Amino acid sequence: MLEQTELSQKLALSALLTDVTLPGEKVSTQVFRCGQIVSDIPRGIPSIGLITRGRIEVYSVALDGKDILLNELSAGECFGICNLLAQSELETVLRCSVETEILYIPKAVLLESMAADGTLALRFAAVCSEKIQFLLKRIELLTMQSCRGRVIAFLLAHSNKGGEVIFRGSREDLARHLGVSRAALFRELAALQTIGAIESHGNLFHVMDPGQLEDLLYHPSNTK
């Protein structure tokens, strides 16, 4: 059982769950090793998980067994939200990329809180909307036919106002994220550097000319 002070500190990490009061005897924490698979039905209880420490990679597994990195979740983010009103387990695979601590909240407990707190229900709706928008962008990216198109779309979508793009994983992780081979990713990054569209230093990319990338993206004749 978690003390209320400790529980409140953990909930405060989440924009969704901050200021929410939950019974300490109904929630639980669990620590997972790097590489462990995480479920949203711990001990058979449908729950949402709040990451309080660490990081989780979210994968989709295709029929041919190939896994595609969909997203990375870090401290303060939740999983199991989108199927809050469903009893089925997540179709995605959740794997810890570092040692990770998760606060599990039974769905029934969260639903009771939402029924009593309209503000929490609205925040939940906002989170779901954001996740839908994110997934639509991921689908658009992954359905692009060319490797170069996927790489360019990623760079444009994740660059900040200064043109910097920081990817926390390795180049191999980025290749899985884009659904392309590592060799193809290296080839396209090298080609974009050669024409001066980007600069690359380790996991830091710098978009030098967004207009040039957009021209390559939206004119298929210029894209391999």
From TrEMBL:
<dbReference type="Pfam" id="PF13545">
    <property type="entry name" value="HTH_Crp_2"/>
</dbReference>
<dbReference type="InterPro" id="IPR018490">
    <property type="entry name" value="cNMP-bd_dom_sf"/>
</dbReference>
<keyword id="KW-0805">Transcription regulation</keyword>
<feature type="domain" description="HTH crp-type">
    <location>
        <begin position="145"/>
        <end position="211"/>
    </location>
</feature>
<dbReference type="InterPro" id="IPR036390">
    <property type="entry name" value="WH_DNA-bd_sf"/>
</dbReference>
<dbReference type="Pfam" id="PF00027">
    <property type="entry name" value="cNMP_binding"/>
</dbReference>
<dbReference type="InterPro" id="IPR000595">
    <property type="entry name" value="cNMP-bd_dom"/>
</dbReference>
<keyword id="KW-0804">Transcription</keyword>
<dbReference type="InterPro" id="IPR014710">
    <property type="entry name" value="RmlC-like_jellyroll"/>
</dbReference>
<protein>
    <submittedName>
        <fullName>Crp/Fnr family transcriptional regulator</fullName>
    </submittedName>
</protein>
<keyword id="KW-0238">DNA-binding</keyword>
<dbReference type="InterPro" id="IPR012318">
    <property type="entry name" value="HTH_CRP"/>
</dbReference>
